[in-house]
Each structure stands twice: as C-alpha cells, then as structure tokens.
Write a structure and sequence with these properties.
This protein has 3 domains: 1-96 and 106-117; 119-269 and 310-359, no CATH class; 391-530, no CATH class. The protein is an all-alpha fold and 546 residues long. It has helices at 8-22, 26-30, 35-45, 48-58, 62-65, 72-80, 84-93, 98-102, 107-117, 120-128, 133-137, 149-156, 160-177, 183-193, 198-208, 211-214, 220-232, 235-244, 249-254, 258-268, 272-285, 287-291, 298-304, 314-321, 379-389, 392-402, 404-408, 413-421, 434-449, 465-477, 479-490, 501-511, 515-530. The protein contains 33 helices and no strands. The chain is globular, with a radius of gyration of 29 Å. 60% of the residues lie in helices and 0% in strands. The chain starts with 7 loop residues before the first helix and ends in a 16-residue tail after the last helix.
Length: 546
C-alpha cells in the first residue's frame, strides 16, 4: 500500500481489503506500535466513506487514544479529514477532560490540534472549562459575546479569586512539566494575567522568564506573554530571558511574532551591554538577510524610528503598550481593564488598534514614575548605545552603500535604507556618522545618474515603483540628500525624467518644505512646467513625519 509505483486502483483494492479485515479491531490496532502505521496508511489513501467508517468506530475511544503515543498520529489525521459535524462532536467529547489532557505530554498535542482546527466558538468552548469549575460543569453558561475572561466574570458574577485559584491549579502543572508550546496554553496564560493579583502575576512571570519563553513566542499570544515578561520582569528575569535566547536570535528575528519580542527588548531593557552582546551581535551575523526580510527589519526600524505607524501595524503598536493590570500603576483592580485579545484566526484582519489590558497614565506624578513598567534609561541614550556604540549603525550603512540598488527596489529593504539615509528619527545617526551618510547619499545619486536610455536588464531607480517613491520621500525629508542628488544626478537632466514614476521624484524638489531645496531646482523645473512637459500636483504636501 505504501509503494510509490503502485496503481491507484490496486492500492484502493488493497486498502479496502485491509480495512475489511480490521473492522471491529480498529481501536486496538490504532494503539499498536507496528500495526498503527498500517492503519495510518489506509486512512491516508482511502475514500471519504471509508474514513467516515473508521472515524465512527474510533469515536467512542478517541479520548483514550488521544493519550496513546502511537495512536495520537492517527487521531490527528482523522481530525484533519473530519467533517464539521465530526469535529464538533469530538470537541464536545473533550468537555470535562481538557485540563487533564493538557497536562499529558501526548494528550496536549491533540487538544492543540483540535483548537487550531476549530472555529471561534469551538476554541472558546475548549478554553472556558479551564477558567472555573462552574464553566467546566455547565458549558452553556456564556455566549460567544463574552470572549474575554473579565467579561465572563462580570456577566456571571463569579468570584475573581475563585477563578484565579482554579486557573493556577490548571496552569502550574503545565509550567512545571514544561508543556508550553501550544497556543491554547498561551491564551490561557494571557487571560490569567488579566485577572491575577500582583503576587500571582509576578510568580508566573518569574517561572516563564528564561529558556521556556523561547518556545512560546511563535504564536500571537505567546509573543505578547514574552513582551509582558520583559516589561514587568526584574533585571534578573530580563537577563534570563535574553540569555535564554542566545543562539536563537536569528530565527526569532525572522519569525512574525517573535520579532516583536526583540522589538520589546531593544525598547525596554536598560542593560545595553547584555543586549549588545547577545541580541545585537547575533543580528549582525545575518544583517543583510534581516534588512531584506519582512519581520527581520523590525528591530532595526525600531531603533532607527521607534513606534512608527508606517512600519508597525496598529496591532503591533497595541501589543507594545500591553501591561498586566495588577502590576501597572494606576490600576490595582485589573477587572475593568480591557484585554483587546482577539481570536488568532482574525488577527490578520485587524485594522484598528486593539483595546489594551491597561495603559500607563500620562499624568502620573513624578514620584510614581520610578514604578512604571519598562526601562528607566533615557530612550534616546539607549538607542545610541545599541545603534552607534555597538557598531550596528555603521554596519547597516555599509550594507546600504554596497547594496543600494537592491535595497531601494526591495519592498522591505527600502524602509531601512530610507531611515538610514535620512539619519534616523531625531537625527540619531548624526553627527557621529555624517561621513558614512554622505557616502550613502552619493551611492544612491550614482545609481540615479545613470542614463535613462542606457541598455540594462534592471529598471532604473528613478522609474522603479519602490525606489522612485523612496527617493522622493528622501528629497522631501532630507535636504542634504536632496542637494547631493540634484548636484550629482539631476541638474541639467530633468527633461528626460519629466514623465512616468520619475516625474514624482522631480516634483518632490518643488514640494519640499525646505526653501533651499526648492530654490536649487526652481529655475530648471519651471521651464519644464511652462512648456507643459512637467505637471506638478495641485496639492503640494510634504511627507508627514510619524
């Protein structure tokens, strides 16, 4: 049945014959180390009707099979091919057993698999019984409208201390056994922290801080747990978290969720020597690759231009502001704080900023500022130490100079080269690296200087969709670059660039807020405007600074 060169008809006959002989003994076969593989092969290649027959025979035994080391693979295969009705029936059969299965190394894999396959209502059904004894006994107490634990407690009038006590009895064995890889557990921990008292919240953060956290930050809720641990952890705990990431920084930086934990580290941790030694040094090992990567560029952009809405989605920015209610000044109750935690299946569709667990009050007195979660060091000084002192900025500039054309035309690299070329937010790269920045400006200008009609396989930087817009933004935001580009590449040659994407680059000189930039190009461009060769947009608005 497993041979690759067998005809489909022959395989179907063999599978039908094998399943016929197994009928009545399938649960026993599924638990066997050897014969379970035969059954898995049959399920993989059999018809839907035969799969339904196998599922029907296995259904009364699925809970026991979910704990079996050999049967677990078959159970997962059956769930993958199950109909909506069959999946719903299986998830309902888990009721009352979710907590015990999660504590089982094999059983937890099945619960997570069902959680991933389930819809929002089914995910909520699996989570609810982990919250309290009442919800474990009566699964229809709440509707889908109460997706957050704080809302469930409020509606049913449950005692927060009793719920917290029940949840820690579920959570503690999972942390002790190291069963922390599953997204359902990450969501459970996030919900627990939204109601936990100060002492309990600190205990959980202390247990999570370290190598354990690295296994959790690949999911949306796991990433948020990592950020909360960094924000509220002690100096010692932050040190353990960073040391636990040693050797994994490159992989974490490429991960969509994990990269936000690195963003949190470079934004909060005051120990820049440790951050440089582990995080920055490993980032520099694959710097060019990270600059061109959708997720890899995030930590670099956070250092160059912190919390910029151009580079971080509302969901990302909301995650950076999350905090644990009981550990945040100004909100000791935690029950009325807003969690803003949406289902993972809809997370990619988030376009509005999520509600936060709790936010820091901007009007706090000076005496309470020392208790704020996060770092105490001046953010600009922290950025300087991580960017300039570590040598990261110089290496990034060198990469930008060497690969200016590739980065400008890249959908992701263009953002890094733009921030570097303009000197970063608050001019952080100036005046220390002014000479290097001048070299970068000249490198970009030399690409723009090439003739429009010169035969080349690649599109000219002034006509490429990405690069033309990046150069235009640089003209608007960086007078030094605008002067270099005009002098080296465009002066006396604007007529050939007066149409297409390149015309937007030329018009940027007239749209600039800086009078010296407008004045240097006004004469030559006015002639083109009068001749009707160049059309300037009616509303000349310089690019806004985030």
């Amino acid at each position: 049945m497993r041979r690759r060169n067998i005809a489909k008809e022959d395989r179907s006959k063999l599978i039908t014959e094998a399943l016929g002989k197994m009928r009545g003994k399938i649960p026993e076969i599924a638990s066997s180390h050897v014969s379970s593989r035969v059954l898995q092969t049959c399920v993989k290649h059999c018809s839907q009707a035969e799969k339904d027959a196998v599922f029907g025979e296995l259904q009364p035994h699925l809970l026991n099979l979910a704990r079996n080391t050999y049967a677990v693979h078959l159970v997962k295969k059956m769930l993958d091919s199950a109909s909506k009705k069959q999946l719903g029936g299986f998830i309902s059969s888990l009721h009352g057993h979710v907590a015990s299965l999660l504590r089982h190394m094999v059983g937890s894999v099945v619960v997570e698999h069902a959680y991933q396959l389930g819809n929002a209502a089914q995910k909520q059904e699996l989570l609810m019984e982990l919250y309290s004894t009442e919800l474990q006994l009566f699964k229809d107490l709440v509707s889908m409208k109460e997706s957050r634990l704080v809302d469930v407690i409020s509606k049913l009038g449950l005692q927060k201390t009793a719920v917290s006590r029940h949840m820690i009895l579920v959570i503690q064995p999972l942390l002790e056994k190291g069963i922390v890889d599953h997204s359902i557990i990450h969501r459970l921990l996030i919900e627990y922290l939204s109601i936990a008292d100060q002492s309990s919240a600190r205990d959980v953060i202390q247990q999570l801080s370290g190598p354990l956290l690295v296994r959790m930050i690949h999911t949306r809720d796991g990433c948020r747990l990592g950020m909360l641990c960094i924000k509220h952890g002690s100096t010692k705990e932050r040190k353990k978290i960073i040391k636990g990431m040693k050797g994994h920084i490159g992989k974490i930086a490429h991960d969509h969720c994990g990269s936000m934990v690195l963003v949190s580290i470079v934004s909060i941790v005051d120990d820049t020597k440790l951050t440089t030694k582990i995080v920055i040094s490993e980032i520099q090992e694959n710097l060019k690759e990270l600059v061109l990567d959708k997720s890899g560029k995030r930590s670099l952009l956070q250092l160059l231009h912190p919390n910029c809405s151009r580079y971080f989605s509302p969901d990302d920015l909301a995650s950076l502001e999350l905090s644990v209610p009981s550990l945040s000044p100004g909100d000791k109750s935690g029950i009325n704080s807003e969690a803003g935690l949406k289902d993972e299946e809809t997370s990619d569709k988030v376009v509005k900023s999520e509600e936060e667990l709790t936010t820091t009050n901007d009007n706090q007195s000076l005496s309470s500022k020392e208790n704020l979660p996060g770092g105490k060091k001046d953010p600009f000084l922290r950025r300087q130490e991580l960017l300039i002192k570590s040598g990261l900025a110089e290496n990034v500039i060198n990469i930008c100079v060497e690969g200016a054309g590739e980065l400008l035309k890249s959908n992701f690299g263009k953002e890094v080269i733009y921030e570097v070329a303009r000197g970063g937010s608050d001019g952080i790269l100036r005046p220390t690296l002014d000479d290097k920045l001048t070299s970068l400006h000249e490198a970009i200008a030399s690409l723009a200087e090439k003739s429009k009609y010169e035969e080349a396989e690649e599109e000219h930087v002034l006509e490429n969709f990405h690069s033309s817009r990046t150069i235009r933004k640089l003209i608007l935001d960086c007078p030094a670059f605008a002067a270099t580009l005009w002098k080296n590449a465009l002066k006396g040659k604007c007529k050939s660039w007066a149409s297409g994407h390149s015309s937007k680059v030329i018009c940027a000189f007239l749209e600039s807020q800086h009078s010296e930039v407008r004045d240097m190009a006004q004469g030559e461009l006015q002639v083109l405007i009068d001749a009707g060769l160049l059309k300037v947009p009616e509303t000349k608005q310089p690019a806004k600074e985030d």
